[in-house]
Amino acid sequence: MEKNKVKFGLNKVHWAKIKGYDEEGIPTYDTPVRLPGAVNLSIDAEGELENFFADNGVYYVINNNSGYSGDLEIVLVTTDFATEILGEVLDSKGVLVEKNDTETAEFALFFEFESDKNKIRHMFYRCAVSRPGTESATTEDSKEVKTETLTLTASALENGLVKAKSCEETDATVYKNWYKAVYMPDIPTETANGG
Predict the structure, then answer these.
(1) Which of 7, 15, 67, 121 makes an SS bond possible with 113, Cβ 3.0 to 4.6 Å?
(2) DSSP helix/strand/coil, 176
(3) Gap between the terminal Cα atoms of the chain
(4) What one-character DSSP code corresponds to residue 105?
């Protein structure tokens, strides 16, 4: 693929619920599901560089990668996301019910940015989300669409993986199948853990 020069836009937000973890802490995921109506994504890196001093100077710089946190703004939370991730219950009459002891589920998050050459596809391996607020307003002379904001945190898997993204070197088959399953990289565990 050709190298990109710029990025813009947000599209194809998907989620894949974590069903469980194996004995090494690696998750198994459900099939990815589209979350339509992506409006805005703003996720910041968490963690800071920390200097270790010796011999009267900076001897070593420690990179504390604590994942990412931020907001995903969408038009409307879907029923399947509400039940599978937010833990709401769909009762026998088709009503979504939220209880105070509900626990949210972890999931992988996929999305892509448009670009001048190729779409840049991203994946966070382990996300948690808070419940969105409820907001709307009366209709006046014109209609204004109200959105919902999900506050996200993306943290590392036990093997150290936090995120992945495509680039000009990405294998064509991997790129094509990005939204079909969670991609697990072909790198040694020591490298994934930063060792």
Answers:
(1) 7
(2) helix
(3) 30
(4) P
Going 155 to 157 to 162 to 163, the CA torsion angle's sign is negative
* Arithmetic mean of pLDDT, 76-100: 93
* Res 86: pLDDT: 94
* Cα angle 97, 130, 181; round to 5: 95
Q: How far apart (Å, rounded) are the C-alpha atoms in residues 100 and 148?
A: 20
Helix or strand holding residue 53 (H, E): strand 49-54
Question: Is beta strand 38-45 parallel, antiparallel or unpaired with respect to 68-74?
Answer: antiparallel
Are 116 and 5 contacting, i.e. CB atoms less than 8 angstroms apart?
A: yes
For the stretch 26-61, pLDDT in tens is 899 999 999 999 999 998 888 777 888 888 878 887
State the chain's maximal CA–CA distance in angstroms: 71
CA distance 59 to 112: 39
CA atoms of 182 and 29, how far apart (whole Å): 7
The predicted-structure confidence for 94-117, as pLDDT tens digits, reads as follows 999 989 998 999 999 999 988 767
- Mapped onto helix, strand or coil, the DSSP state of residue 31 is coil
